[in-house]
Amino acid sequence: MAKNPKDSPRIYYGWVIVVAMIFIGATSAAVAGPIFGFFIEPMQNDLGFDNTVFGLANTGRMLAAAFGGLFIGKLLDKHGPRVMLAVAGTVSALAIMSLGFFHPAWWLIGVFVITGLVGVQGQAPFYTGPSMAKWFIRKRAKALGILSMAAPLGLIIGFPVVQWISATLDGAPVGSPWVQRRL
């Protein structure tokens, strides 16, 4: 005899959204800031960049994120977080992947500025907060509290993953085709 669907507890779909937004927030935190530091020395050795290039790239990303936030908020109100998150994620992914093909210093700085401008690196709350908040009225603060663990989780998981990648590559140049095939 089949169970009555009303007898089984259903999970509120808003909690699925919270889990998805935690994944997005954790991923963007893992790609940004502290974890990128692991790649600076290998990129300096492989590409010949000095610390100034990385400092300019990070400064450009932060400035672009600060000013980009003014426009992202308006676009989120107009188009909604689903469309904007898809566009921002696609633009950022393509920009970051392009680093494997182009190696001038201005390209690295430009990619960092683009990722800051679309607001994915470091600005994931622009997208994750509104996406999640639409699903909650009574338990919104609880859901936001749970969502706040996204960035720490990204760093907690990201550091060992990057360490494993570094150990697996065993000092291979960052831009080499061997590294790209291996990953």
Commentary on this structure:
The protein has 183 residues and is mainly α. It is 75% helix and 0% strand. The longest helix has 29 residues, at 51-79. Mean pLDDT is 79; it is low at 177-183.
Task: List its salient traits.
183 residues; mainly alpha; 9 helices; 75% helix
Low-confidence spans: 177-183
Largest sheet: none
Tally the helices: what do you get? 9
Q: Give the topology string: H per helix, E per strand.
A: HHHHHHHHH
Kindly provide the radius of gyration, computed on alpha-carbon positions and rounded to a whole number of angstroms: 19 Å
Average residue-wise pLDDT: 79
- What percentage of amino acids are in beta strands? under 5%
Please outline what is shown here:
The protein is mainly α and 183 residues long.
Secondary-structure map with pairings?
Layout: H1 13-31, H2 33-47, H3 51-79, H4 81-98, H5 105-118, H6 125-133, H7 140-147, H8 150-169, H9 177-182
Helix pairs in contact: 1-6, 1-7, 1-8, 3-4, 3-5, 4-5, 4-6, 6-7
